[in-house]
Amino acid sequence: MPDGKPDLSGIWVGPFVNDMTKSLKNQQGSGPLELTEWGKQKKATQVDVSIQCLPTGYTRSTNAPFPMEIEQRADRVVFLYEMNNNFHHVFLDRGHPADLETTWAGHSVGKWEGDTLVIDTIGFNGKTQLDTEGNPLSEQLHVIERLTRTDATHMTWEIAIDDPKTYLKPWKNVRTFTIYPNWELQEYVCNENNKSVMEGHITNRGQAQ
């Protein structure tokens, strides 16, 4: 880029991460995640937001088996998700506002550490899940991501999860994304008023009864 930073622009595809805990790098050792009592109850009772066509949130949009496009500017990085036709801004020229309003995808600010883009996201409303598996989150979720373009076609994406209301300790997940220069994002349609959901034919795990 003109400012000397790596250009992350383009359409990227990563591995479908159905369960972020399957390839985690726990900051205090590897193994199953330890949920708080609140986290266990949340996981057992929550309903998958996707079957109601509600926003799937920030981390799950990145974990989905659909491409995303990155548009890089001097003052921000914009993520365009094929899934649900969502978008998300990462502001490079400001910090988090003092009167932050919670949202489905949170509020993101970024900075460069050498050639790595570090993204700090807070301000979640706690109504989504981390991934398709349904690993829960709360409004206390704090996400730190590190994006490093390792060569012309690949980018390492490290995501750190810190949610003391849900998990007993922070943990990380690392994956590699591949750029597809000739791809374009496609239209994504999710139908509201799903009778299978409203009339109880689908459980909170998304399986028909």
Notes on the structure:
With 209 residues, the chain is mainly beta. Helix content is 9%, strand content 30%. Strand 8 and strand 9 form a beta hairpin. It is built from three helices and ten strands. It has a nine-stranded mixed barrel with strand order 1-3-4-5-6-7-8-9-10.
Q: What helical percentage do the residues reach?
A: under 10%
DSSP helical segment count: 3
What is the chain-wise order of helices and strands? Answer: EEHHEEEEEEEEH
Q: β content, as a range?
A: 25-35%
- How is the main sheet built? 9 strands, mixed, barrel
- The unreliable regions are 25-29
What separation lies between the terminal Cα atoms?
Answer: 53 Å
Q: What sort of overall outline do the alpha carbons produce when their principal axes are compared?
A: globular
Brief rundown of the structure:
With 209 residues, this protein is mainly β.
Task: Explain the layout of strands and helices.
Layout: E1 10-13, E2 24-26, H1 37-45, H2 58-63, E3 68-72, E4 76-81, E5 87-91, E6 107-113, E7 116-122, E8 142-149, E9 154-162, E10 171-179, H3 195-198
Features:
209 residues; mainly beta; 9-stranded mixed β-barrel; 30% strand
